[in-house]
Fold this protein.
Amino acid sequence: MHFLERGLKLNHMQDEPSGVRRRDLLSLIGAMAGSAAMYHAMTSLGFASESRYQGPIKLEGDPKGASVLILGAGLAGMTAALELRNAGYKVQLLEYNARAGGRNWTLRGGDSFTELGGFTQKCEFEDVLYINPGPWRIPYHHRALLDYCKRLNVALESFIQLNHNAYLHATRAFGGAPQRIRAVKADFQGQIAELLAKSTKQGRLDEAITKEDQEILLQALRSWGALDRNYNYKANLFSAETRGYATAPGGGLAAMPVPSEPVALSDILKSRVWRYLQNFANYNFQTTMFQPVGGMDMIGKAFAREVGDLIRYNAKVTGIAQNDRGVTVSFVDTANAGETQTATADWCVCTIPLSILSQLPLQVGTTMKSAIDAVPYAGAVKIGLQFKRRFWEEDDAIYGGISYTDLPIRQIAYPNSAFNRTGRGVLLGAYLFDGANAYEFTAMPPQERVARAVQFGAAIHPQYKAEFENGVAVAWHRVPFTLGCSGDWSEEGRTQHYRNLCQIDGRIVLAGEHASALPAWQEGAILSALDAITRLHQRVVKT
Amino acid sequence: MLAAALMLIPAASLAQDGQRVFSSGYRFVEMSGEELFNNVCRGCHMGDGAGASGAGSYPSLAHNQNLQSSAYPIALIVRGQRAMPPFGDMMNDDQVAAVVNYVRTHFGNDYRDAVTAKDVKDARR
């Protein structure tokens, strides 16, 4: 969700024996289904999804007192509520939870959370420490979300995706010792540059590029790979400037630095840790990324300050009916279980996740219904761990960012704020998106998830054993208000059903990340809502 | 086929820790019906198979007459349906058969006509 980890999914795909490469898949889709399908496939695979945001929405024309019932007070629902009320509509929102925000959610000390199956966790983090179980980072090109943060006064700070001093870890490589990202990147790049330089000098590229360009290429490879004058990548003070030193430069008598010894290319290749380097290059994870100061739910709370008066909480929708005059939604009050109640309006913007909507009695046409039924929901697990001290900073000099591992926890993400302080800290001790481990962790009781995250994480940070205090674990298939992390469209499903999902059906239009080409991103939820209400408004002012 | 699939899995991923097996990649390494149920299905259908209910529901598998026809759970596991994710790419034919047989003979279900890997293979077509 967050969240979306297309990059990780690709890592999982590399494990698949089928061996279908992404570009092969894309050209296949392009050949079979035409360029529109190709575009959808590209966007959902993480290419080319530049934000379509055109600045604040302008809904011109008089809605003449028309009313809209919005289902779900997440970012999509609250975006729709905010803008439709500004445009003159009568708006009401029904929300299943006792709070606004939906998957835009932060767990802090004192919060409690009951997952499906009845397991309740009380978060015991200290004071201002938190984890974001859902979305946790915002790419710079998510311009709609950034604009709402600006308009609603949500303060942002940097989210560090790439920290050169964080670790890459492979269980069966380097004797199990985690490697600094900086060193792996330098050694991988340096030795590839060396190979290419040798091939060039041996004339093996003569047919590919001109002699003149070969001279320039050799200069570039020396620079790019930190090669010496003989085009070798070795332990020296030049390579140390990228991979780091055995003994760093100092002051006074013993100031001179000592270079460090590169790791052999063969070891890097076999370790497979190179796949994480490409992850950092993913369009969705490139710098600059942001997070709200104090927790992701600052965004949901900011929206709720605007539209909170329109929200009816604890409302579990049980059915959605429509005729040519309007929409009638039945719901029960989960806080005061009683008779089914109804809410009516001229129009309905429904942001209920498809995992839930597909189970509700819903009066829409067969094409939209088929689309709603066609989208399974991804599994994802996040585990927050509190430690007595920020040992990752004090001992390991890791300030923010993410370490990656092939252990079942997959990632350890360090806090991107309150750097260099004494006292407790919370890190993200596991982030699983899709794949077998996400299901395996979901199937455990919450306390076992936390215990396993500590056990696995200790292979990377042995300090875990002495410093761990408490933790919380959110498995999204167990989250009562979503039954999953995000819409997990297959390419076939998107080709066949996506447009049908997004069409206005009578008086109902759907919105949410599932109705976007940015699945699991908050930007997708907002862009989807803006598109839905634009089309709805056009219809209203025309009639 | 099973042996070939196993050979692709690095040995360490099969190492057990206490009662639990962890997979190393996208596919599950659990092989028995009981282990697959406990490490995968239990996430949503719960340990007693009774399912759960929030804004939507996970159906109970207990005393579930929909399991009478073995083709139904096979199709659901391979292809998914609504909130149920498809597992056809994450489990091989033997694994799907094992977990179908487990669910159809537990939680108050007593359907003794076991399915085979070939049934699953045929259902994938």
Remarks:
- Residues 1-17 of chain B have pLDDT under 50 and may be disordered.
- The radius of gyration of chain B is 14 Å.
- Chain B touches chain A at residues 8, 10, 12, 17, 20, 22-29, 38-44, 46, 52-58, 80-86, 89-90 (CB under 8 Å).
